[in-house]
């Protein structure tokens, strides 16, 4: 079977970034490094601007969802899967074009259906490295419990995968005016992530650009120690 390693960042936020540059620019730079960036926007009253969420996903090569907080639990797992599927699809599409001069859409319907089935198998077998970026700004205080439940649900789906899964959890902002806090570095032990979920708190601004930048540097082992706390 064709071997794949999927690298992705999932941004979970309930508001517009108000510290640093445009998050879409950070998503674009991450995607240039082979990291897919997707986003979930959590709303309570329908007032969240969709543009920033869409731009993060579009420039990051990923997918996005705008949800009410009550729907978040299942949305995180769905977005993570859709993002991984998109990465696999794009990779196979490019490989087919290189080998036979046709992309997936140009194949006979029967063969195209077989490719889609193959993508489902790859999704389960591929190595998956995923950074979850959780907005911990002040406006998230009343949504943190549901966010934690959503991450817990996602962890249960990772336990069932046959491929290697590595996750990290980053909260933004961190304490003491730090852009982000690495709540748990990349680990294959799901229990490490679960343990970190017990002690997260919300407060401060929304430095989404820097959070994406820091997450991308974690994949590349290029962390700037002035911008994070472990």
UniProtKB/TrEMBL annotation:
Domain VWFA: 1-92
Pfam families for this protein: VWA (PF00092), VWA_2 (PF13519)
InterPro entries named among the record's database cross-references: VWF_A, vWFA_dom_sf
Annotated transmembrane regions: none
Source domain of life: Bacteria
This protein's name: von Willebrand factor type A
The species this protein was found in: Thermoanaerobacterium thermosaccharolyticum (strain ATCC 7956 / DSM 571 / NCIMB 9385 / NCA 3814 / NCTC 13789 / WDCM 00135 / 2032)
Source organism phylogeny: Bacteria, Bacillati, Bacillota, Clostridia, Thermoanaerobacterales
């Amino acid at each position: 079977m064709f071997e794949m390693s999927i690298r992705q960042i999932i941004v979970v936020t309930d508001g517009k970034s108000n510290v640093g540059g445009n998050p879409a620019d950070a998503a674009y730079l991450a995607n240039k490094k082979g990291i897919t960036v997707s986003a979930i926007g959590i709303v309570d009253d329908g007032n969240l601007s969709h543009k920033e969420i869409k731009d993060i996903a579009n420039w990051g090569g990923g997918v996005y969802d705008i949800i009410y907080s009550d729907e978040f639990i299942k949305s995180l797992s769905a977005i993570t899967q859709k993002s991984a599927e998109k990465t696999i699809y794009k990779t196979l599409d490019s490989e087919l074009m290189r080998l036979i001069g046709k992309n997936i859409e140009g194949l006979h319907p029967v063969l195209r259906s077989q490719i889609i089935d193959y993508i489902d198998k790859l999704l389960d077998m591929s190595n998956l490295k995923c950074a979850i970026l959780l907005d911990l700004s002040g406006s998230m205080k009343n949504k943190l419990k549901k966010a934690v439940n959503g991450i817990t649900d996602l962890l249960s789906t990772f336990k069932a995968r046959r491929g290697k899964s590595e996750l990290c959890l980053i909260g933004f902002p961190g304490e003491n005016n730090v852009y982000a806090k690495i709540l748990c570095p990349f680990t294959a032990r799901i229990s490490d992530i679960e343990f970190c979920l017990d002690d997260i708190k919300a407060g401060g601004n929304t430095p989404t650009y820097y959070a994406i930048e820091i997450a991308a540097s974690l994949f590349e082992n290029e962390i700037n120690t002035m911008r994070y706390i472990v």
